[in-house]
């Protein structure tokens, strides 16, 4: 099999993250690993639909690749045999994935999870890894649209609880955001039918759907939403740009941007461009939101927040002077939660160690292992943790990064209220005012 080496940025979430949507509209959270450079394993050209075949492939792959040869003290063969008895050849794909991930959970390791094509996460994960890796594109070819992981959707992350399907993430600038969906909404139905993140909108791109939601217990709304084709390679870049805004808080201009994914240099480029040359260049303080979404990031990205920067000015023939800075040297507040994972956690750890500013929210996921993505013969994607990772000698796996200002938040029926974002903005405004008086 061919292998491509790369900087692997994600982890499989213990549960979907929650997002806190477009700040400019004051609406109100989204899945994943850093972390370390490893490889993509490519599937054979045979695309098996037999669940038992796929099960055996998964069990063998995990056994061969998992970073702990003792399999966390588990009798892996016996454990696998127990779960294999629950699998039948034509098993429903979602039930199959649930069974596999229950089997993998005993390893108590991040970056160890199965993603199937019946979930938006498959398209998003594929989109993160596909650019630059032609062999992976070949392996997943039968499940791509013109070489891209595209699906019809409205830009939400949903968490299924006993009480129903709750919106825990709303991507900025996407159809759900534009329709007025906010974090905490319970999705009751789509055009009168039960909600499914893929099947509800399949073939519906460009067509208006009626989304029935429950915003508060007993308070129902019908929203008109038009799905679009979402490309897993670009959707988080679009959402990051659309999240950008400035709050006027007591006379202080507080900038905001949400890094839904930090999986690659292009996201850092968006941040640099926006802070130093774009919409946030005149902000007096910044809230950098790393909640939810996917992981990524590396420690060099922290150089953007240097204590001092080089100031450059230029004057053209129009006589207008333009100033540019080499780094952001104004106050910054970092916003995190249990959906902040992997490379974002390395970033948060470094942010604290370098004393760059306060951290607000909830303790991060504690999901910092090196992972390898495997394209299976049925087109599924299997993440396997293949190496231990430490940051400054600290094992963040299972521990996470605790914020300086703890602000709990549970989304169901939040109706657009985001106490974590409110606290971060208020703190940033205080720091901006202090900077003006120094």
Give the SSE map.
Elements: E1 3-7, E2 37-41, H1 51-65, H2 76-84, H3 93-105, E3 113-115, H4 120-129, H5 134-140, E4 150-153, E5 156-161, E6 164-170, H6 175-179, E7 186-190, E8 209-216, E9 219-225, E10 228-231, H7 235-243, E11 245-249, E12 252-258, H8 265-277, E13 285-289, E14 311-315, E15 321-325, E16 332-336, H9 343-353, E17 359-361, E18 370-375, E19 381-387, E20 405-406, H10 419-437
Parallel strand pairs: 2-18, 12-13, 13-16, 16-17, 17-20
Antiparallel strand pairs: 1-2, 3-19, 4-10, 5-6, 6-7, 7-8, 8-9, 11-12, 14-15, 18-19
Description:
Mean pLDDT is 87; it is low at 1-48. The chain is an alpha/beta fold. Strands 11-12-13-16-17-20 form a 6-stranded mixed β-sheet, sandwiched between helices. A 5-stranded mixed β-sheet has the order 1-2-18-19-3. Helices cover 25% and strands 24% of the residues. The chain starts with a strand and ends with a helix. The protein has helices at 51-65, 76-84, 93-105, 120-129, 134-140, 175-179, 235-243, 265-277, 343-353, 419-437; strands at residues 3-7, 37-41, 113-115, 150-153, 156-161, 164-170, 186-190, 209-216, 219-225, 228-231, 245-249, 252-258, 285-289, 311-315, 321-325, 332-336, 359-361, 370-375, 381-387, 405-406.
